Amino acid sequence: MNKQKDFISKRRLCLIISACIMVVGLAMTLIFGVEMDVTFKGGTLLKYSYTGDMNASDLSSFFTAQIGESATAELSQSGDIQLINVYSTAVVESDQQVEIDKAFAEKYPDNEISLVNSNSITSKVGSLFFVKCLVATALACLFLVLFIALRFSKIGGWTAGLAAVAALAHDLLIVFFTFVIFRIPLNDNFVAVMLTILGYSLNDTIVIFDRIRENRSVLGAKANVNDVVNLSLNQSFNRTMNTSITTGIVVLTLVVVAFAWNLDSIISFALPMLFGVASGFYSSVFLCSPLWAAWTNRRLAKKEAK
Fold first, then answer.
1. What do you get for the CA distance between the two ends of the chain, in Å?
2. I need a surface site. Which of 46, 202, 267, 285 has the fewest CB within 10 A?
3. DSSP run (H or E) holding 144
4. Alpha helix (H) ranges present in 182-224?
5. Which residues of the chain have pLDDT under 70?
6. Helix residue ranges per DSSP H, the chain
7. What is the pLDDT of residue 2?
8. E strand or H helix that includes residue 157
9. Residue 231 and residue 215 in contact, taking contact as beta carbons nearer than 8 Å
């Protein structure tokens, strides 16, 4: 028979590790700041494909003159396609866009310039969109608390819901810190990863709470809470770990391919997703259930004291 792992005894160490990660992440955020994509902060992003050789400094000067405000051009590559990414805080209207494209093609006739993508958003619209995304994420967390509280009412629904949300908040912060540390601008992929991790992490948590509910029913209400949680975690550990490993392998493959082909749009999704998957496993096993056990023990102790 396999030796049972004692997860509860390691809860303080796990909380300390998570607290250290949070402190480092917040420090990095304060030091480096948060980069926002055009989608959220407004402005114009132009993307062109080209052939031959180009100079980023010359392109920045050209687009600054054409747009009438400061513009920055960066050269990148996606597979075999060479790209120019131009960003400006100014909003470029469609008529002005046509003139810029025409002047660009005339200035560099030998480079086969072609417009790949054009995105222009006012700062007000971008900020409003960002706020709506945050509200959507907050509402998702709220509904998850209600769902867990109702589903696991037999094991103290609200304590289970709050423990799950604490773990989810931990995972969302890990995703956010990944964007900050790797200097990935917050864009629509940021929201997509956040919502995906919410569902992924919650799935692991529900599996473990189901085990806890079943074991409390079998062992009785007087069974030691820590023993019930340890038993439940040991029963579900291999399943949770194998699910995270297989998901992580798929996401890691996406990351490797994206870096190999310089696919920025995939990197900005897959890399934070990889850290989110790892965090989801860690929080579900080492944070959520031990937190629930601690709160439940405290509640029972107060009840006995009365």
1. 41
2. 267
3. helix 123-151
4. 188-219
5. 1-3, 306
6. 11-32, 38-41, 56-67, 94-107, 123-151, 157-181, 188-219, 225-260, 264-283, 289-305
7. 55
8. helix 157-181
9. yes
